[in-house]
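S.,

Sequence below, as promised.
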Amino acid sequence: MPGLYDGRVTTSDVNTSDRQSTEVPGAHAPGVPVIAVIGDGQLARMMQTSAIELGQSIRLLAGSRDSSAAQVCADVVIGDYKNLDDLKHAVAGADAVTFDHEHVPTEHLHALKDAGVSVQPGPDALVYAQDKLDMRKKLREMGAPVPPFAAIESVEEALEFADIMNGAICLKARRGGYDGNGVWFPKRDEIEELVGKLLSDGVPLMAEKKVDLARELSAMCARRPSGEVAAWPVLESVQRDGICWEAVCPAPDLSDALNDAASALSTRIATELGVTGVLAVELFETRDASGQPEIFVNELAMRPHNTGHWTQDGCVTSQFEQHLRAVLDQPLGSTEPTAPVTVMANTLGAAEDPELPVGERFAKVWERFPHVKIHWYGKGHRAGRKLGHVNVSGVDVERTRREAELAAGFIVNALWADGWTN
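The prediction came back faster than expected:
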């Protein structure tokens, strides 16, 4: 039944405009700011950790009581983020509402905003993280660097675009894709069948030029409603099969000029689009005709982001703390790194879950690398699923990367990739 707090009804027929408190008794300390978070994944879970330390409190709209974030929140609304009544029930009385994903229908966000709810980021900004074609049109209008692109509404349009790009084509679902889902790199003779099927299935499509990729970067910042912006150093994002495997901050061998350009671009996008909270600008680094590096915007995320997890242990202010401070329009924290290099490595479920219990795997990692920080999401094993991540800070880039890879690999497989025994 929608609109229940962990099975307990506390109010009925919530009127959002009255700003009534609908919290579970005892779930929040008296007088603390309450932030409603829509979404129940690991990002919301880690927001809760920061909220505790900040003297804030989270109310969660979750799909199930055993989800990653619901496990650690006292005030949980079980409901559907696509249902406006569930959204109204979850946000009533909260000081602000924010998200751990961008999939809430735009019309619902406008309805909440019109009812006086502080929606952060607002729907006029969030739409550019929801719809890839709208995002590219807006960025092109701003003069920001984006690859050549086109809306695709027929097989003929897709074939024409592929011919213009000499076959270098990337097809994308305009909405809903993540971790490599909703992205295709078809050969020309595959386009007719693929595009025909996707369009017949109702998938809105766009196409862009497949760039000659040198590597991927992530430029992250946070902005509060009153305008203050703070940017983190630009980092390198290592992708495999469309999934982030590793983030290295700062990006190795990145020139000062390109770092400054990428950082300034993220700040400009946040300001001109009116983004509030954390913004991640995912970038392609390529080479121009003369061999010089240049960047193009790939994606925007208006929330804490996988590539920003390094900030939890390698920066004065983590992305989760910064996001919560920002959405309440509180002064932002320092983004200075606390080590010369920090590496984040994701731990994705192996094909088979090892017999060695995960807690014992953690212990063996700490025996070898006491400085490794492990963050776990409370999810059941599934092959390829993001189950957690590790952060390692150090001085030497290659050594730090190797330690992060070894630690993450042991947690996934219960085996040391270098054959080490303990």
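The radius of gyration is 22 Å.

Coffee later?
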